[in-house]
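Page header: ASSEMBLY MODEL / four components / 432 residues total.
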Amino acid sequence: MDTRILIADDHSMFADGIESILNEQEGIQVVGKCYDGASILPYLKKNEIDIILLDVNLPEKNGIEVCKEVIAAFPEMKILAISMFNQESYVTEILKNGAKGYILKNTGREELMQAIQTVTEGNTFFSKDVTQTIMRGLMNERKGGTPSKGFIPKITRREKEVLKLIVQEYTTQEIGEKLFISLKTVESHRSSLLAKVSVRNTAGLVRKAIEHKLLD
Amino acid sequence: MDTRILIADDHSMFADGIESILNEQEGIQVVGKCYDGASILPYLKKNEIDIILLDVNLPEKNGIEVCKEVIAAFPEMKILAISMFNQESYVTEILKNGAKGYILKNTGREELMQAIQTVTEGNTFFSKDVTQTIMRGLMNERKGGTPSKGFIPKITRREKEVLKLIVQEYTTQEIGEKLFISLKTVESHRSSLLAKVSVRNTAGLVRKAIEHKLLD
DNA sequence: GGAAGTATAGGGGAAAACCCTCATTTTCTA
DNA sequence: TAGAAAATGAGGGTTTTCCCCTATACTTCC
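Prediction written out in full:
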C-alpha cells in the first residue's frame, strides 16, 4: 500500500512542486493539499492520511497550533515539519507538539525522500542544520533559568493593528493619530506586544512579527 | 524544439519542485538549476537557455542585480521573476532591469505554465495580485515627488555585522561592546543603514533586512 | 452576573534611538 | 600610489521607545 501524504503549505507553487516530486516516487502518493491551517483537520476527518508535510509558518492558524490539534485528534499521525526558518523556538515547540521531524526548505529531494520514509516508519528525522540548532539550543537552555518559552502569543485585534503600523515605520505618536487613540494607549499596546512575543525592543518585535506571520 | 529553462532559487526543495512540475509538461525542459545568484551568469555562458525563473530574493547577490547582469550580457534573455513578496519596490525594480514577468510563490501550476509561455513568446505576465500592487504603486507615484527608488543598497561588511546584531535585539551600547567599538561608531553605522535602505527607524530596518535577505 | 480579558489613558522617568556636523585613520581599488 | 570608500569616533541635541505604576469603561465568556 502506498504511503498517503497530505501537503500543507500556503504557497501553492511550493505545494504543487513537492507534490510533483513525490508523485514521481514509487510507493508514495500525495492525496491532498491544504493551503491554510484551518482546512487540515476537516480534511483529515474525511480522508485517510499516513503523513502530513506541514509548513510551520502558515498564515492565520500557524503550524504549531495545527500540529497540536491534529495530534489531539489523531495521536498516531506522522507529521513532518517544513520551514524556511531554522530557529530554535520553532523546532523545539513543534516537536513538543508532536511533530516527528523537521526539515528546511533548502533541503534537496533525496533528503526529503529520506525524511518522509524515516518519519513514516515512526522514527524521527532532522536536517543537519536543524540538528545543530537544537544542540545549540540545549546548550543555552537552563542557564538564564527562563522557563524557556519563546513563542506563540495571542495577539488581540487592536494589538495587531498597532503592530502592523509599527512594522510600517510609524511612530507611536503617528499610530495614535491614525487610530484616533492617545499616545499612551499605543504605548500600552506596544508593551503588551513586547511581553507577548517576549522580545526586548522594536527590532525583535518586527522580526518575530514577520517570522510568525503576525501581520495578516 | 523544447523551451529550455533555468531555475534560480536558493531553496532547493522549491527549485526541485518546480523542476518536477515543469518536466511533466510537453515542450518544456528544465536544463539547469542555480542555488545562488553568483552561479547564474557563468552557467548561461556555457549553456543555451530560453527562459530563467528567477527568485527575486536570492542571498548574496540578489535577484535584481542578477537580472541586470544577465540582461547586460544577454539582452534577449527572457526572465520571469518569482517572489514570496508582493512588494512594489521589488516588482518595479526588477522590471526596470529587464524581467518580463513577475509571479508570486502562491501561484498555482496552471498560472505558472501560462506565465512561462507568455514570457517565452516575448510578452509580459503578472499575477493578478501583482498587477494590483503595480497599480497602487502608480497611483502613489508622482505625488511626493521623490525620485521613487526604494531599494538595493550596498551594505558594507561592518554595517552588516551591526545590522545582524540589531535584528537580534541588541542595543547600540551592547553592539559596541560586542564589536569592541564605541557607541558613536555604532550610531554612525546605524545612520548609514537607515539611509541606505531608506527607512525611518529600526522597525523599517529590520523589515527590509529580512525581506531583502541582508543577513547572510 | 461576576470574572477575565480588552481597550482606553495618564504620570513620570530612564534608556535608547535618531539627527547633524565634523574629523581621523584604515582599507580598498582604479 | 593617490583618491575613494569604509571604519572609527566625538559633541550635543531632539525624539522615541521602554518601563514602572495605576485606573476606568466595555466586552465576552463561563
